[in-house]
Specification:
With about 1100 residues, the protein is α+β, with helices and mostly antiparallel strands. The protein has 33 helices and 35 strands. Strands 4, 5, 6, 7, 8, 12, 13, 14, 17 and 19 form a 10-stranded mixed beta sheet that branches. A 7-stranded mixed beta sheet has the order 31-30-29-32-33-35-34. The longest helix has about 30 residues, at about 190-220. Residues about 1-65, about 265-405, about 410-470 and about 640-650 have low confidence and may be disordered.
Length: about 1100
Amino acid sequence: MFVHTQMMKSSVQYITKSRWRLFRGPLSACLKITDPCRMPPSIKAASTLAVRMQPEGAPPMRSLPQATPGAVEPVVQIPYQELRDLTPSAVEKLHKAFVGERAYGAVAITGIPNYAELKHDAFRAGVDLALLDDEGRKRSAAVNNTYPGWSGTPGSETHPLQNSFLFNVKEELGGQMDPFFGKNIFPSEDYRKTWVKFVDVMYANALQVLRGCDKVLDTEIQQWQAQRSLERLGDDGPALAGRFICYDSGFTREDKLLELRDGVSPLNSNASSIAELPQSSHGHEEPSEMSVKTVGHAGDGLASMRTHATPVKTAGHAGDGLASMRTHATPVKTAGHAGDGLASMRTHATPVKTAGHAGDGLASMRTHATPVKTAGHAGDGLASMRTHATPVKTAGHAGDGLASMRTHATPVKTAGHAGDGMATMQTPSAPVKTSSSGYNPLELSSSLAGSLSSQGSDDAVPVSQPETDYWLPWHVDSNFVTILHKEMYASESTGEFISEPPGSGLMFMNEVGETTMLDCSDPNTMLLQMGAFAQIYTGGKLKACRHAVLNPVKPGVARFNYCNFWYVPWDTLCTAPEGMEATAVNQGWNAMMDESYLNITMKQSFTAFRQFMVSPEARVQFSDSQRFKELSAILPIVRKQGDAGAPTMPNIQVDLLTDVRCPFSFISQMNLQNAIQNLGLQDNVVVRYHPVFLNPNVPKEGESLDDYLWREFGYTKEYAHSEDYPLRRYGREAGVEMNPHRRVVNTFDAFCLIEAAQEEGVQHELVQTLSRWYFEEAKDISDVAVLRAAALHVGLDAERALQRSSELQGTVQERYEEFSAMLGEVPHFLLREQASGNGLELGGLRSVEAWEQVLQQVMERGQFMGMTIDGPHGQKVRVDRANPFTPVSHALPAQHGWTPTAWPYQEEDFSRMDERPDDLMYSEPRLAEHLDLSSLQTLTETYEAIFQACPDGFSVLDLCSSWNSHYPNMDRASKVAVHGLNAVELEMNEVATERHIQDLNLDQKLPWADNSFDVATLALSIQYLTKPREVFAELQRVLKPGGMAVVAFSHRSFIEKAVRLWASEPDDGEGHAHVVCRYFQHGPENGWEKIKTMDVSPRHGDPVWIVTAVKPM
């Protein structure tokens, strides 16, 4: 499997007398926990729940898992000489290693000549690079973690594929670079030679194992080698990913799979529970169909890491990049929510309506009993085996101190939120009377609401780190085969090798659940494991290896290993032999794969994996909850007019889902406005409002607030009117005097007017006016006279606005129904940086300081967008919407300057399914758009950024154009020539100053003189060119020296007209980007420079990929 863990920061727990908070530093991460005895009673109960690490009476730490006792077979070992000669004994041992329910899917080859020496030298070079050679890491830096080179920063990186060195073994042994995988880059020639000596021996022995397995399969499957061959498949593969990995001792994970096998209830049942599991045929507990869904390629491209029972066990790993391993069934073993500093105010009995990320830096929003609709962890790049129906006993995040108001549709069954310190507006089913103890569910803890993270006291007392179990949890590698060894260990500070810690290393499991560890003292040993692809390819005859890696080591010890992940030819389908589909995929409680592995190519699998792992979302601190994605999809970003250039500060859109009579919402809004002022973002933040009514059935006459508070919460009038009433205190701090004489009113009509005000651009002003009048002056904002006055106050034509508001009643009702199905509390905020679409979704009341940190986080997420490329005539162009982390944006940089020496395509590559003349297809005008509006807007903004770099009076050619060039305002251009196949379409093109009809597949000669244009564009038609080299040569001719060509493409085509080369490429993005680069590199030879690949796809919409090039000056 091409997924590895990371080098994590060491973790230490601290007991302190103040607040709890997760700290991260270069070498350690500390969890500070409040002493519950020192806390106010209003939050004491919740905090006690938060810091409880295990049930009372449980042992302080768990022992490491042990191999299954009794008559358990060890991992099969074959002496090198036997394997080389493929003796009958060797073939018999391979059969035992890989065939049958008790096979572990792995074999150890012992006694390989000079293997230990070669391994030592290679590992020594790798450890020195990882821990001691800063300059070497810079020289060999990978463009990203799934491309060759060094990735990661030891001690500070927070990505699962970091702190490692990757290279394509096939490129070194066979001399051929695979453009899709990327070109190898090494810190030095000596480093390269050291590793090549080692991998040469590994490769030869692995091929011999595959030859032997082919012999085994000859006895198992009729005419096996006449149809298939493992040896051929492995030897023909274009990529063999050799990754040297550095893990530090702080990276630990808990896995409860063996407890499920043994019928043991998991620890820490305070936080979660496991669904009842029926018995399997083997007598082991097997998850029911609705409780555990094992996930394969569907979610991540290369599924491997089981996640339903593998939470992060030690503190400090919130940013580990493998936080998808958290689950409902097994909690994180530290207090709080991975140290996120944010949480929700959900009660113990309220299900959350949408799925989301655990460990995303915000509260997890997964449902208690609703199946997750997509495979994997919201596309996290790691296999998910989450339970679909396992309830969470404590619904979310106790003791977070962030207020919210519960909507009418969400009853609260408990009397408060375990002393959460803030109010949740409860239904009549749960009245709470004030007690003599002084407990008040409205009491806000200043330490929790005051900031996202607060410094604790300095008088902390260290407590030893809890014992941990795994470096890697139980999983199946999903590539073809994997080669590895016994790992080596070294001091994290000096890099000196140390002996293997007792109890560490690889652990194996077979189909029936027996477990064992590799018991081999021979240092000249290599291990080969079958992956899921090999198991499926053999119809399940050869078993994939279920394995885990144990971690008993103490802080300061790093684990190192080198693995070869073999990939078969990219276009190979993962299919079983005919009639063996049913046995190809594992079943049962320890399946670790499912049918989603089937019928996809190796390239599709790897592409899906890479697309996630190169993105910022793969880093947990930048991952999004599912609800963020859902809300973002239905609440599009509305960019300010004139935003095409790079703003001095990032623009932020805030979508607030709330009821205008929610006091927590208004106070939180005021604090947000103050935070915006403090950060100087007054001109960069826009707030939009959306209806989620607390109770849409409030009668027209309303109700006295005094009566409401007494009935719902048991608050007396005297208390609610007193100066000590918490809401009055919070209001004064925010600059609001909360009037206790206001009534509970129906706000539906008010929101209809707010919706009308949005159309006139004064929604925010109207909301502020209505809120002030309601909360401070106790005006009835359901009264039409008050609404008319408010409309006049913000400059609207009152009668017209009221008329429009009545017309919008259906729209408001529909929006309320849509949002209320997703949310159970208000207020709820969706904050996004406008250019990138990145941001956060969160709820509740926050202080000014907390909002400042939230806004800074949103701006930080926005920094992960935007690229600067070479533009026309030596100018630089900043494209704000470009994502620099996607495979398309990495496609060319990952080549490290390599280009094919000759045109790599044949004539048949440009054949088409429909070879009829193109003018037949375009004889009638096609006045349609080929992408959705958000994608076309992104394309227009990209053109605008490029055109802004052109001089006044510039000239543009739009090749293969139509009725819409998707250009911005072209007043500065002197000439816009459009070229296409249909005269009617071109005549309708409003920006054109001249038009030309031509079929480029018949005649490639363009009618313009040399050096005529500053910019040439070709959008969404590159896939139809049958003579691309000739067309690109002409394009280069008509551009001025320094002129720029821009080719845009997406995932849509008239497939019958697309050339075979384009239509047969499974990777619409990176694969096609390579094709366009070849067109530039050979059309004509040396005719273009400064070629760039760029992904400008909107967050929601069709992808938009661009390749640009400049004609030499």
